[in-house]
């Protein structure tokens, strides 16, 4: 079929040092660095390196970030596919897009493929109304076929992200497919402080800002929430024509974000 060519994949600028906390996840993902940097050394020895890694964890915990950081650190191109894009597509388009993406990544190897929201196409099959022939299922089948089609030595690592590992079709998790699982957790106190530090690197802070205190006051915040908090605080200071962000801006915005979260919860009930 005729589909759009895969966009040229760039080498991300992010590094693993931009991912704060998440030490376990960084260590596990980091094991692939050597392989991506010098695939030939492994290939000469006939060593088979895992191709499929499932990143699981709540929204905003840095799954996309860590995948990009691995590519950036290894200096390899990053091919990104958002699985939810395929849901509304014409039959056949999703599958051929998947094929094109894997072909492009193989041509550019060593390389990384990142599949976001894997659960949107990867739910248990046969559960939909399409009687097993719908678009979603064809896309999923193509992903499975591509994972099986790797030669052991090919230097393409496929990372897939989900916050619903429980609904995934077990076929995805079989050996040779997404058989390695890395869990990202919501950050603890030290993790939140580290994330705040990363996002405040280029934000001028007034002397009364204590990021440890901000971290103490933001239990349950994800990395994405904390990034948002820093940005909202900076916006508030800019609106007041200040040259530095003050502690009260963090307090105000934290309260606002928390109330927003409470409101959202109330609506869902
Ligand atoms: P989703 O499941 O909603 O797609 P995700 O787990 O992929 O979320 P990201 O998109 O990687 O989360 O995170 C959003 C943003 O939050 C990142 O671009 C980054 O700026 C910030 N962030 C999240 N976690 C961290 C972290 N551990 N260190 C630094 N920044 C983080």
UniProtKB/TrEMBL annotation:
Residues 49-188 form the AAA+ ATPase domain. It is found in: Cell membrane; Membrane. ATP binds at residues 57-64. Coiled coil: none annotated. Homohexamer. Acts as a processive, ATP-dependent zinc metallopeptidase for both cytoplasmic and membrane proteins. Plays a role in the quality control of integral membrane proteins. In the C-terminal section; belongs to the peptidase M41 family. In the central section; belongs to the AAA ATPase family. This is ATP-dependent zinc metalloprotease FtsH. The lineage of its organism: Bacteria, Pseudomonadati, Pseudomonadota, Alphaproteobacteria, Rhodospirillales.
